[in-house]
Specification:
globular, L-glutamate transmembrane transporter activity, mitochondrion inner membrane, membrane
């Protein structure tokens, strides 16, 4: 690509406005579909990460089996038991995913150098980290409520849990317990995920419609691989976040939680639920990126899908 072509490409980028409504809708649709598919495994992950001392669950399959049986009697009750806490996730996943994906696009566009076809890896990591930072305003209370509901032995309603937190446990601050580790996890995850996805997606074959987009399966596989890799890397932060948000241990902060988990349970404890988390995040982001880049919302709104930045 010569200089004139690069200049034309930059002019087209500058002139083409970013449509945020379809991006928000794509983020919401992909989040709801993804959470609905993987939530039972997320429940298993939370319960594995939170156990210490004498193990209640002996691995993923044992935890899944015992969680399934705990919902008896009745198949409907067992299915409902595996989706304990899902209502909070499904309700808040739309703004959470919308913020993450839209913010990443915004920062990637803002950090794009003049006459540059591809965003550099450091700038891509910075854009991803900024997106992760923005999403914690939704993610922290969503994760706290979900975890409390997943760990509850009763079918507690989200509204009652929120009311108790606001009136008995410290008000708004109680909803943001675990903000530090949530921010550390999500900033690190996004800083790893988005540049890795962009790199892998760029290696895939392109569509034949001159859009420059990767074919369907390439975006899906890239989302799977990037989601699995980034989620494994930040598992220790996710374990710390889960322990702090359950409220079952009196950790005073991230460093205190790391130290106590290491000294009392060993390094392996920081990677509890790692495989489970990968099984959750890989398909979640595979679905999310596929819906997002296929442009489902644009099709529903009757808009032409623009090139992405």
């Amino acid at each position: 690509m010569d200089v004139d072509e690069l200049e034309l490409l930059q002019e087209e980028r500058d002139e083409q406005p970013i449509r945020y409504l379809p991006k928000v809708l794509n983020g919401g649709i992909s989040g709801i579909v993804g959470v609905s598919c993987v939530f039972p495994m997320d429940l298993v992950k939370t319960r594995l990460q939170n156990q210490k001392g004498s193990a209640t669950y002996n691995g993923i399959s044992d935890c899944f089996k015992k969680s399934w049986e705990a919902g008896a009697p009745g198949r409907v009750n067992q299915i409902k038991g595996m989706y304990q806490g899902a209502s909070v996730n499904i309700f808040l996943i739309t703004p959470e995913k919308a913020i993450k994906l839209v913010a990443n696009d915004f920062f990637r566009h803002a950090l794009m150098k003049d006459q540059t076809e591809r965003l550099s890896t450091p700038r891509g990591m910075l854009a991803g980290a900024a997106a992760g930072f923005c999403q914690v305003v939704i993610t922290t209370p969503m994760e706290l409520l979900k975890i409390r509901m997943q760990q509850s032995t009763e079918n507690v309603k989200a509204t009652k849990l929120i009311w108790n937190l606001l009136t008995k446990d410290g008000g708004i601050r109680a909803l943001y317990k675990g903000l530090g580790p949530t921010m550390a996890r999500d900033v690190s995850f996004s800083a790893l995920y988005f540049p890795l996805f962009a790199y892998l997606d760029g290696l895939g074959p392109r569509k034949k419609d001159d859009s420059g987009d990767a074919v369907f399966w390439a975006s899906f596989v890239s989302g799977l691989a990037a989601g699995a890799s980034a989620s494994f890397a930040v598992t220790p932060l996710d374990v710390v976040k889960t322990r702090i948000q359950t409220g079952s241990s009196n950790y005073t902060g991230i460093l205190n939680a790391f130290y106590r988990i290491l000294s009392e349970e060993g390094v392996k404890a920081l990677f509890k639920g790692a495989i489970c988390r990968m099984m959750v995040m890989a398909p979640l982001f595979g679905i999310a990126q596929t819906v997002y880049y296929v442009g489902l919302a644009e099709k529903l709104l009757g808009l032409e899908k623009g090139s992405r930045v």
